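Q: Structure for this?
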Amino acid sequence: MKKLIKNGMVYSGGHIRKLDILIEDTLIKTVAPNLTEAADEVIDAAGKHVFPGFVDIHAHLRDPGQTYKEDIVSGTHAAAHGGITSLCAMPNTEPVVDNIAAVDYVQRRAKDLGYAKVYVIGAMTKQSEGLEISEMATMKSGGIVAVSDDGKCVQNAKLMLNCMRYAKNFELPVIVHSEDYTLGGKGQIHAGKVATRLGLTGIPGLAEEVIIARDIMLAESVGCKLHIAHISTARSIEMVRDAKNRGLNVTCEVTPHHLILTDEACLTFDTNTKMKPPLRSEKDRLACIEALIDGTIDCIATDHAPHADFEKVREFDQAPFGIIGFETAFPALYHHLVKPGIVMLERVVEAYSTVPARLLGLPDNELKAGNAADIVIVDLQAQSDISEEFILSKSKNSPWLGHSLSGKIISTFMDGQISWQESE
Amino acid sequence: MSDTPNFLGRNVFDLVDYSAEEILYILEAAKGMKEINLREYKKIPTLRGKTVCTLFVENSTRTRMSFELAANRLSADVVSFQASVSALQKGESLQDTVYTLDAMGIDLYCIRHSSPGSPQLVHKYSGKPVINGGDGRHAHPTQALLDIFSVWEKLGSLDGLKITIVGDILNSRVVRSNLIGMKKLGAQVTVCGPRTLMPGGMEDVYGCKVEYNLREALRDADVVMGLRMQMERMTDGLFPSLEEYSKHYVLSKDTIKYAKKDALIMHPGPMNRGVEILPEIADGKQSIIVEQVANGVAVRMALMFLILGGKA
């Protein structure tokens, strides 16, 4: 079965230009201008953009155990709707993915029923309790791509050091959610002017920064691969920049919301502006953008964190942290960063596809011959009107509800098969 | 007056939503209400047939009584919902609680809740006007209005006054609402307390002055307000002992002499005598602390009257 995507503006090898893509079964056969080869199906992408399928290395599918929020089917369906072809599932489910049976469950279910490729991140400590090292090696043999206690943070520096040593032993990247509990405390939003104004307890940038400082030092001594999840402050970024300059194997990701929104968004007490790390100051946001452009921030990840309506629609300080992101990430990035000329389209695309795949050692997803046909076709002229109906995720906890964002995902291909198709 | 402010159906989440003119209009209305409270028969029929609900998810006997008295004196029916004896204790959400109450035909909610922003939720769920009776550390607009009324009544205007507020600024909703209201009426406000009890960015957020030394803060003040210091702050690691706190931040004859000679002394209550204020000051002739409580009823009557469109 051959498919030919014709006349699209294709991101390939760092550039966007007019190219055709020939797909044969699950693989890309040729990427070249003006292909005339016969195909079973010709997809006219004239006026549209064709990118490598997006890769989201930070997602919460809530399956097993919290399937009222999301499950592997609804989550991957939403991901495909957002142009994502590969994603990494964080282990903070119920039970926690800290053993090979749980890893198997997620992988198998995703393989059988999913609309996207799901890679599993195993818990770094048993039940992510921050007390004992998990069976990382066994989980690695079962296919995990990294370890993390995301959502929680190991507070004990000695244990963290040993987790890194052990992870290094089995060549597993360590992904950290950086949060010092004593400094973060019962904080609700960024400790800044908005917190002062609203009387909400603040989470200072320091809560993130002291852990990043610690973990960079620990990782340096161990020589392990350290990836910092959802970086959010200017000072954190400075530390990563410094670590990179010193040649350390330290990388980091940023979420679309930390690139676009600040704590000002919390002024309405909308619980869909409540997440960890919290939306920071404008200074921090601008530092994130600068670092994304200069490469200090390696990639973009959504931290898709579904919560049911009855959990989110309540008093601000009693609502859980987290927002969904699969379906709004690209339109929000395009609308707020690319269209106004702040960040190049090429940079957003690579930081949300080829770069994160490389970071965690996932299969290369450049649009080139021999790679899996994981492809997204986007119409940058069309609008995504974000409503509860638009969102396929089980949970609707998005700060973009009611917004009309430029850029719309038209089709998503996973292994050459349609995983999302916008109806005409 | 052609440009009489319109209060009908409005919420009182905080004073940010009210202009200086509107605040002054409320004060004038409260003055009228205060006269009613001084009568032998303290009741007018203006809100007959209206139902006011005091929805107190966080306990506060005094504030609830003040709201209920206010509603009673305007002849509204009053129902009282207290979390400690209610379904919320059994795990019912605020949303369901409000849906239930609303089905009974409430016209106005007065809410006290430990979560900032909860009055907005009550309005969202009910569509009815809501008066915020204190939401966490966020706002306490009726307390601020009664404080402002108390000063305004005594001194005629707040314009140009130097007002100093001393104590646990970090945890105080009273300070936050007062800062907004007092600044709107032209007062210069200084907040004072130890750094551990001072939120960041106060100057930028409120345009107030921040002073850590009590004597400096009190210098030439026209009005001095003390705030309740709570023992819990000690276990939070914010200060070492009440004794040491008191040594540096108590309102006493000794410290108050830095303020103007006839400066008004205020406190939103309940007081910790001997901690943030000494009896010699609390009960002194400059103190208007007891009057503040009386004014609270008048201010709340004024708000209910204006919001529910009572007939004068």
